Amino acid sequence: MQEKPLPPPLWILIVATATGPLALNIFVPSMPGLVGVFQTDYAMVQLALTLYLVAVGVAQLGYGPLSDRFGRRPALIGGLVIYFVANIACMFAWSIESLIVARVLQAIGGCAGMVLGRAIVRDVYDRDRAASAIAIITMAMAVAPAMGPAIGGIIDAQFGWQATFLVPMAVGLVVLAGATMRLNETNLNPIPTIDVTAMLRNYASLLRSRAYIGYAANTAMSVGAFFSFIAGAPYVMIEVLRQGPEVYGFYFVLISVGYMTGNFLASRLSSRLGVDRMIPLGVGVSLCGAVPGFALAWADVVTPLSVFAPMCVVAIGNGLSQPNGISGAVSVNPTIAGAASGLMGFGQMLIGACFTVMVGYFQNDTDHTAMATMILLATMSSALFFLLARTSARSS
Q: What would the pLDDT profile of 238-247 be if each residue is shown by its tens digit?
């Protein structure tokens, strides 16, 4: 049995994973003001968010095979360099078009940590231990959204929208320095070539696996529930309930605390219970939030707590199931864990973008029914896809 490589410092993986979500969320409070700054409409400004998600999804397809061929370390460092330069470009954007282009580059660089953090963990740990480690790392994806809107709103109010890019730029520089000095290579068996045919063959083999589809789609639907909330909650709070952005930021902390709570529990329980017990446990908890949230929406109960409290429960469940679903997906074929992680990340962003568009399309001016419906649909779909993975494992 081949010996596992030495684990790198965990803080590098945590901060690297946070770079993408931080850049995504710290920008959101500045979006309404950019309509006047660039003399455009909100739909054009929103492209800086939508195309960010698309770029994150597409770029993940490349990082996985690149890291399988050349190693995790150079792929991560290259992505962090792009991220650092892109933040500077965002600060000096002279038009909404140039800002959108810079945001796309920011997404391409920022998603490196999201993909490679998972692959590195799978390189150094076995399946169930990897789920515990991923749970700790993915707490960064809860902390960053929690801090991002609040920090972005304060910086925008005090120093202007350009200054909001200083924070992700500084974070990117710190993790770039740490990765350069402290990150050892964990891919000890790189694939011999990275031709397009081999890449497509790896993706095709994963897409033919019912187990992989089940685990990966389970995590994607959990992400879909989160982005449904991101798409609908700001509008409901600010336009329907007439609350300020700072109130939205305050309540959003509940969601992040809920997700971190689920991650903490997963880090303690995953090694003991195993992936295939933790996922239904997490999905069950999420349903305990999604169903009441849907019922409150249809009963026309629209308050900050009716919006945020059910989603807090959903977030706890997602925190329990998400790291285990990720571990299950990248463990289906460990020899191409990078490709598996990248393809899974692409699916997560694609599903998240689709749910975001659907919530925006069906959102009305009086309640949060569209958001609650999509959250319930995503959670139920998450359960169904896990059943596909579990059934496939049993038949094997």
A: 778 888 767 7
| 61 or 83, higher pLDDT | 83
CA 166 and chain centroid, separation = 21
DSSP letter at 237 equals I
User: At a CB cut-off of 8 Å and minimum separation 6, what does 45 contact?
Assistant: 31, 32, 34, 35, 38, 96
Residues 6+ apart with CB under 8 A from 219: 321, 322, 325, 326, 329, 344, 348, 382
Question: 197 to each of 51, 141, 203, 209, 335, how far by Cα in Å?
Answer: 27, 33, 10, 19, 17
Dig out the tokens for 167 from the structure: 């924070």
Long-range pairs for 49-54: beta carbons < 8 A, 24 or more residues apart:
49/24, 50/353, 50/356, 50/357, 51/100, 51/103, 51/104, 51/107, 52/23, 52/24, 52/103, 52/104, 52/106, 52/107, 53/24, 53/107, 53/227, 53/349, 53/352, 53/353, 53/356, 54/349, 54/353
Q: What are phi and psi of 6, to 5 degrees?
A: -70, 135
**CB burial string 32-69: b at 16+ within 10 A, e below:** eebbebbeeeeeebebbbbbbbbbbbbbbbbbbbbbbb
pLDDT on residue 1:
47
Half-sphere exposure of 383 (CA within 13 A, CB side): 17
pTM value? 0.77
Contact (Cβ atoms closer than 8 angstroms) between residue 327 and residue 340: no
Q: Dihedrals φ, ψ of 301, to 5°?
A: -90, 110
What is the SS3 assignment for 38?
Answer: coil
pLDDT in tens, 252-266: 778 888 988 998 898
Listed in sequence order, the residues at least 6 apart from 260 whose beta carbon sits closer than 8 Å to its beta carbon are 139, 142, 143, 319
| Domains observed in the chain | 10-395 (1.20.1250.20)
CA proximity to 69, closest of 195, 180, 179, 183: 195
Per the CB < 8 A criterion, the answer to whether 310 and 290 are in contact is: yes
Cα–Cα distance measured from residue 235 to residue 222, given in angstroms and rounded to the nearest whole number: 21
Comparison of pLDDT for 217 and 395, the residue scoring more: 217
